Amino acid sequence: MPHLFLDDEREPVGDGWVVVRSVVAAIAWVEEHGFPDYVSFDNDLGPGLPEGRDFAEWLIQRDLDTGGMPEGFDFYVHSQNAVAREAIEGKLRAYLEFRMTGAAAGPC
Fold first, then answer.
1. Structural domain tally of the chain?
2. Spatial distance between the Cα atoms of 62 and 49, rounded to a whole number of angstroms
3. How many CA atoms lie within 13 A of 61 on its CB side?
4. Which among 2, 14, 25, 77 counts the fewest CB atoms within 10 Å?
5. What Å distances lie between residue 7 and 37, 48, 86, 94, CA to CA?
């Protein structure tokens, strides 16, 4: 499965990436192709537009609702926005831990 690169300006390094420039495009790609194995997130995707953290939350909700997130799913946050980077990393790491442990307390 290709890796998904969410960024409104930058290009990924290397091959095997599907580049999406907005959260809307990222959601559409996942709805058509299923979960990728790996996502590289930017957060700030343009004034007034949904952000990378919105896509991270959507991925979590999608998995809770329908399943499909592959075992071994991983991600990287390449955003220069340190606050958003920590938010995305914290939310996704907590969710992945929840999935692995089946914690009864809930995902986040």
1. 1
2. 20
3. 8
4. 14
5. 17, 15, 17, 23
Residue 95 near residue 107 (C-beta atoms within 8 A): yes
Asked if 35 and 73 touch (Cβ cutoff 8 Å), the reply is: yes
CA Rg value for the chain: 13
**Residue 12, both tokens:** 């990924």
- Digit-coded pLDDT (tens) for 1-23: 789 999 999 999 999 999 999 99
pLDDT in tens, 22-41: 999 999 999 999 999 999 99
* Domain CATH code at residue 12: 3.40.50
Residue that the structure tokens 């969410």 belong to: 6
Residue 82 is classified by DSSP as H
Is-contact 19 27, C-beta < 8 A?
Answer: no
